[in-house]
Each structure stands twice: as C-alpha cells, then as structure tokens.
Write a structure and sequence with these properties.
This protein is about 35% helix and about 25% strand. The protein is built from 14 helices and 18 strands. The two termini are about 30 Å apart.
Length: about 425
C-alpha cells in the first residue's frame, strides 16, 4: 500500500530498480524477475500516423512548426492518441525545458521516462510512444520541469488516495458499470461504530457496517471484512456494487465490515501481524457477531484488502482458520511469513480443503517491495504456484494494469460473486 506521492515513491523504487539490475545482471525480459516490455515494434511504428506526423514536423523549419502543431492539436485534442489498438502516443505542448512521464508502465512509478522534445519557437512539443495490450488500463502523470501534473489534454482522472492521476485506457478496456448508482432498486444502509482494541499497539478506529436491503427480515448472514475499508468504500463504490449485485440476485445478501486504515497499520499488516490478527479475530468479530445477524461459521466469513492489506488478509485466514476460511486481495504484498503460514496451514488436511482464496495482480504492478525484493507480479505468480502445489482452492488472475485503486475497483464484483454467489 503506497503511503507517499508518486514522485517520492518513484525515487525509492528507482533505487530498488538499480539494485535489482545490479544483482540480476540484466533488466530485460530474460531476467528471473521479468518486467513487461512497452517498447513498440518496428512494424507498429511504420504504420503509425503519429510517427509520420513527428517525422514531418522534424524536417520543417522551426518557425513553421508552431502552426502545424496548432492544427495537429485541433485535430487531436485528446491525449494520449491511441492507434491500432496497441500504440499509446503521449504528448505535451508548451514552454518547458524537460517533460517526464511517470506511471504504472514506468516500472511501477519507479523510473520516469524523458519525453523527446521538438523545438517549436518559444514552445516545445514533447512526446513518448508505448506499446500496450489492447485491454490495458494504466495511470500516469507528467513532470513538467519541477511540477507534477495530470495530463491537461486528458479528461479522465482516476482516484489514487495520494493525488490525482490521468488514465490511459486502451480500446478493449471497458469500465465496469456495476459501480453506478441505481435509483430504481432497494439500497442497503450503513452503520458506524467505534472499535478500541485491548491490544494497546493497535490504534482505535472507526468501523462502518453495510447492512443489505431487507436486513430486518434476514438472519445468519455471511460477512466480509475489508482492511483499508474506508478508501474501498470511496474509491470502489462498494455500497453501489453490493446493492446492484444483490438486486440482480448474483450474490446472497451479505454484511460488510469496513475497517478504517490508520497510519500505523502498514507495520501491523507486514511485520507485527499477530497483534492485528488477534484484534480482528478475538475482538472485532465478537463485537460484530454480538450486534448483527451474522453467521458465526468461519466458512461464512471473508477478509479482504489491497496491497499490504491483502498480505494481512491472506495471513489472517491461514493463521486463524477458526475465524476465517476465505480471504481475498489485489496486488498482494508477499513475504516469507506468508509462504511459511501457507506451508503450515496446508499440513492440516481438513483445513486445507476448506480454504478458498482469491487474489490478482497487475502486469505493471510495483517493481519491488515483495519477498526478496521481487516484483509484485513475480511474487504473486510464485504464491499462485505454491497454492497449486499445496492443493489450496483459489483463483488467481493477472490483469494488464498497475497498483491503483482505479484498477482494483474493476474487480470488486468478481470478488463478491466468487465468495457470495447464490
């Protein structure tokens, strides 16, 4: 889970990238920790109208370029320009010495790319071309001299929790309409309560509880606990998704417990895991079960999160199957503790057969920060292989996206349907 702005993160992860290259001896796709290539091939570039425009611009006298640029901007007002379902052509025009582009495909915000510049009088035309899968969706920003900004010619702004991002969505990516509010259906309600753990190190926090429509006539409902739940509510439109899926009869009515994230939680999600797990399992669950009409069976409880929140979610289920037999997450931070817990939990045949997990990762996820400084993609693939080897039931997917709320929100319905399908 990122806790700083993208430019700050980029410096840290660029250092990690350099260390990774020096250790592995290479940085291309032949490395044990492969990084997906975004360099366009010769055939794509030869067919590109944008490339032809750039080549024609370069041979013009400098004093004539501004007029041609203005006509180009009038014909192509939106950035990036997408060609052949695979080329993403980014550009920026104005007065600046340098323009960088940084985002998911720059090694997970780790290594900003310098955009090539063409002098056009007092202004410069900056551009960079990438090859992306036809269904990719990524976040990015421009760094104009020393200022980090969104793309001024891109109207699509995405939520991130630490600043605004521009979105590049390739033609085959389709926004999931399940997040949209439907006035014609019944809607659930949201309760609030305050949770103070007996474990002093775990900070007190607010909890929000989603109750499905018709709650008064329901009983023994399954429960979903979500780490970093308030951001999940805001950025993923969880209440709308729940209302819509229940109305469509795609999932059974469910109670969802949204746990507020506190700044110290990252330490507990990754290092002091026992304190946090104990607080959730032995204090929060009894509080919820006492006040709401929930099923008390571990097979009817799911715990979920994103990034480091996925780590603690998977770990909680593996270490406390008496409370949770299901866990889910996206862009999981992977540690040796998680692998050790998986090995130990799999030794119990009855428990192993009862587990059910869901996790996914982005092809352009973070470059490092997982076990042994592996990329998130590589570490999640290894976790998938480990689960296959141990025979633990799970779903694992790789998507052409990055480490962003705008990506995670697209799969909320898949997670809910996987665990709560009727």
């Amino acid at each position: 889970m990122k806790t700083a702005g993208p430019y700050t993160i980029s410096v840290f992860y660029f250092i990690c990238f350099l260390l990774f290259v020096s250790i592995s001896g290479c940085s291309d796709n032949t490395a044990p920790n492969p990084v997906p290539s975004t360099t366009p091939g010769k055939e794509l570039l030869e067919k590109s109208n944008f490339v032809k425009f750039i080549e024609s611009l370069k041979i013009l006298p400098v004093e004539e370029r501004s007029t041609v640029i203005q006509q180009h901007l009038a014909n192509n007002p939106n950035s990036p320009i997408i060609e052949d379902n695979r080329l993403a052509c980014f550009y920026w025009y104005g007065k600046a010495s340098t323009v960088l582009i940084n985002g998911d495909i720059q090694f997970g915000w780790a290594k900003p790319d310098t955009m090539e510049a063409i002098i056009c009088g007092k202004e410069r035309f900056f551009f960079k071309i990438y090859s992306l899968p036809p269904d990719a969706r990524i976040d990015y920003q421009f760094i104009v001299d020393d200022s980090t900004i969104t793309d001024p010619r891109n109207q699509f702004i995405t939520p991130s929790g630490f600043g605004l991002h521009s979105q590049c969505a390739m033609p085959l990516f389709k926004t999931n309409p399940i997040r949209e509010f439907r006035p014609s259906i019944q809607h659930g309600t949201i309760d609030s309560l305050f949770f103070k753990s007996k474990t002093i190190s775990v900070q007190e926090r607010k909890i929000k509880i989603y109750k499905p429509a018709g709650y008064d006539n329901l009983s023994t409902l399954p429960t979903l606990y979500i780490n970093d739940g308030f951001k999940a509510m805001e950025f993923c439109s969880y209440a709308n998704v729940l209302d819509n899926l229940i109305a469509d009869k795609k999932i059974t009515p469910v109670i969802v417990v949204f746990i507020q994230y506190r700044e110290s939680d990252r330490e507990y999600f990754l290092n002091k895991t026992k304190d946090y797990t104990t607080a959730i399992c032995d204090e929060l669950i009894p509080l919820i079960d006492q006040n709401y009409k929930t099923s008390h069976l571990p097979e009817d409880r799911v715990i979920a999160g994103i990034s480091a929140g996925t780590h603690i979610s998977l770990l909680t289920a593996l270490k406390r199957p008496d409370k949770f037999l299901n866990a889910a997450g996206q862009s999981a931070t992977i540690t040796t503790e998680l692998f050790d817990a998986l090995t130990e939990a799999a030794e119990n045949e009855k428990t192993r057969q009862a587990f059910s997990f869901y996790f996914d990762v982005g092809r352009y996820d973070l470059l490092s920060g997982a076990v042994e400084n592996q990329t998130f993609l590589y570490a999640n693939q290894n976790l998938h292989k480990k689960m296959e080897t141990t025979g633990i039931r799970h779903v694992f997917n790789i998507f052409n996206d990055g480490h962003e709320w705008a990506n995670w929100r697209e799969r909320v319905d898949e997670i809910l349907i996987y665990f709560f399908s009727k």
